[in-house]
Amino acid sequence: MRCSPACAFPTADSAICPAPIPSSPVPRPSARWPSLRGLLRVAALLGVALLGYLLWQHGAGVARALGAVGWLLVPIVLIHLGQIWLSGAAWHAVAATAEPLPCATYVWTRWIREAVGGLLPLAQIGGEVVGGRLLVLAGATPAEAAASIAVDLTLEALTLGVFIALGLGYVWLSGTGQGLIGYTLLGLAVLGPAVLALLALQRLRLEGRVARWCQRLTRRWPRLRMQGLEDLCHAIQASHRQPGALARGFAYHLLGWLGGVIEIYVVAQAIALPVSLGQGLVIESLGQAARSAAFFVPAGLGVQEGSLLLLASELGLPAVTGLSLSLVKRLREVVLGLPALLAWQAIESGRWARFRCRSAAAPPSA
């Protein structure tokens, strides 16, 4: 198996990375990683503290709202399953693999990928890495899996920008919540250039440049294997050579974001809160903008709750509305996420069991 410096998803019986270059010592793990994990823990604790404070302030109203959900949690879960299907279909559309995988594989993997990111925020492995590994187990190469995730995340970010623009358009046309426009534009000014730079980097014709760069490196260090990086660039460019597939992926992702508006509306009706579809558009789009801007807070703990409370207040709704909406969404995450985590563990356990059987059956080496 080839090792991609950008993103590798090794199987249990494959080599993980090339041998170290003899001319330089093997680097020790960077001291920055423990500090980064510490910062994530601090951000998570601050988010939990904010969530606790909001519940302390509005706990009685939230408890009444959650108690009214009942069986209406079923359509809420079904709506989000539709969003997962759309996200998986978008991922399938942009994936350029030598041996095409069925759409169901991407939908299934998206379900697990989302659960890992939402329910295991402090884990040492992210949802995208798990998703890439599952694609490799399904038959994709590591470069194809990494490239499909990179292109898919870029399209998802671009469609989120369109979705946020729709929410801002409603705010401007309705004349309510005008104070939200400035904050949202500031957030877009920070995140927008990063997304556009990522898109521009992918759109550049990188194959020739990367090949020349790899040749120079391998001449300097003959044992250094750079084929994985070249394969990754080829796979990304293969995805960008399919404009029809990119358009389908864009449409699927945008429909997925709009599905969140329907979820907000159904949740509001379930807990008897006065939220219209237009207000749901503002709450969902600008709430997603806040959560994306606070990407360093694991699972958006506290950020999602605080932003939805603020958005509801700016729209003239009771403060408890935003907090109740957020907690119902958290409940839906748990209901959908726990089975996904169990499915992931079943896949890994079966893989490990097969690996042990092969190892036991292998003849001893001389």
Written description of the protein model:
The protein is mostly helical. It has one domain. The N terminus is likely disordered.
Helix-residue proportion: over 70%
Strand content: under 5%
In total, the number of domains comes to: 1
N-to-C order of helices and strands: HHHHHHHHHHHH
Q: What is the molecular shape? A: globular
Structural class: mainly alpha
Assembly level = single chain
Query: Nearest-angstrom radius of gyration?
Result: 23 Å
DSSP, total strands: 0
Total DSSP helices:
12
**Main sheet summary:** none
The rounded distance between the terminal residues' Cα atoms is 25 Å
Give a nutshell description of this structure.
The chain is built from 12 helices and no strands. The protein has 366 residues and is mostly helical.
Write a concise keyword list for the protein shown above.
366 residues, mainly alpha, 75% helix
List the helices and strands and how they pair.
Elements: H1 32-67, H2 73-94, H3 103-119, H4 127-138, H5 142-174, H6 179-203, H7 207-220, H8 227-240, H9 243-270, H10 277-293, H11 303-314, H12 319-361
Helix pairs in contact: 1-12, 2-3, 2-5, 2-9, 2-12, 3-4, 3-12, 4-5, 5-6, 5-8, 5-9, 5-10, 6-10, 7-8, 9-10, 10-11, 11-12
